[in-house]
Write a structure and sequence with these properties.
Elements lengths: L2 E4 L2 E4 H18 L4 E2 L8 H10 L7 H18 L5 E6 L7 H10 L7 E6 L2 H11 L4 E2 L2 E2 L2 H9 L7 E6 L9 H13 L6 E7 L4 H7 L6 H17 L8 E8 L4 E8 L3 E5 L4 E5 L4 E8 L3 H10 L2 E9 L4 E8 L1
Parallel strand pairs: 3-14, 4-5, 4-8, 5-6, 5-7, 8-9
Antiparallel strand pairs: 1-2, 9-16, 10-11, 11-14, 12-13, 15-16
Bound molecules: S-adenosyl-L-homocysteine and N,N-dimethyl-L-histidine.
Length: about 325
Amino acid sequence: MSTQLFGWSKIKGEDYAAVREFASDVRNGLGKPQKELHSKYLYDDLGSSLFEAITHLPEYGLTRADEGLLRRHSHEIASLLPSPVAVIELGSGVGKKTRHLLEAVGAGLEQERLRYYPIDVSSEALTHCERELSDVAEVHPLVQSYLTGMSRATAERQPGESFLVMFLGSTIGNFERKCATEFLRDLHRALLPGDMLLVGADLVKERDRMLVAYDDPTGVTGAFNLNLLGRINRELGGDFQLRDFEHQARWNDQHNRIEMHLRSRMNQSVFIAEADLTVTFRAGETIWTESSHKFEPQELDEMAQQTGFSVEAQWIVRDWPFAENLWAVR
Ligand code: SAH
Ligand code: AVI
C-alpha cells in the first residue's frame, strides 16, 4: 500500500482517513461549551491494556459480576438459542468472558466449528481475543465500529442460520439513553426474526460503590482517562501536558450515570497540530470523556420492547448488582 507523509509520521492510506476523522471529532468536541471527547477514543493500544487492568481492580466489580453470570448460566443461555447459530460480539475487547458461552454453544454443534465474529475498534484487543479464543471457535475478528462490523458479519450468514449478538460488560451504558435506543433499533434492522441479543447491563447501586469503581485509589482509571490526551499528543501532534489535568468521576443523579471528566488544573492553552486547533482552558474547566449509565432491571425490559425485541430471560446477581438480558428479534 502507498504511504503518505503526514505531519511527523509516515502512515498508510486507510489510517490517514482514521486520523482525519479523529482530528475532526477532536476539533468539534473541544469546540463545544462543555468540552467533550468521544469515549471510543479511549481505546488505543495503551487504553485497551489499561481497560484490561481496570477489570482486575477490587473496586470495579462490574466485569466479575458479568463473568460470574455468564459462567453460571451459559448452558441455560445456550439451550435457549436457535440452531444452527453463529455468534457476533460488539466491542468484544479481549473476549475473555465470552469463553464460557462459546464453549457451551459450541458443545451443542453437530459437525462444524462455531463461527465467532468479534467486532472492536481496537486491533490490539482483537489480536488478544483471537489468540485467547481460537481453541473454542473459528474466530473472524473485525476491526470496525459496531454497525459497520455488523453488516460485514451478517453478510456471512449461512442459509437457515441465526445469529446470537452479544453486547457485554455494560458497554450499552456508554451510550446516552436516547442513543442506546436508536442503536438498538439499528441493530434490530440488521438482524432477522429469531436472532437473539445478549446484553450485559450494570445496575444502579450505592453511590459510593459506583464512584470508587471509576476513581480507584491505585489510579488505573485515572491513567485510562488521561491516556486520551496522550493519544491526541501521539496521533494528532498535540502538546497536552498530562500532569496539568486530573481525572474526575462524578455521579449524575438526574441521568443515573457516572461521568468521567478531565479537569484542567490551571488556565492554559493547548495546540493540536493535525486539528489545526488551539484550545484554551480555564482552571477547573473539564473535558467530558465518558458516561456510564446505570440501569433498573425493569428499564431494560422496556428498552427491549421499545426497540423491537422480546424479553426471553433476565439473570441478576445481587452482590454487585448486574443484569444479563436475553432478547429475541420479533
Ligand atoms: N466487552 C468487553 C470490553 C468492554 S470495553 C468487556 O465486557 O469487558 C469496550 C470495548 O468496546 C473496547 O474494547 C472498545 O475498543 C470497544 N469499542 C468502543 N467503542 C466502539 C465502537 N464505536 N465500535 C466498536 N468497538 C468499540
Ligand atoms: C466499557 N465500559 C462499559 C466501561 C464502563 O464501565 O463504562 C469503561 C470504563 N470506564 C471507566 N472504567 C471502565
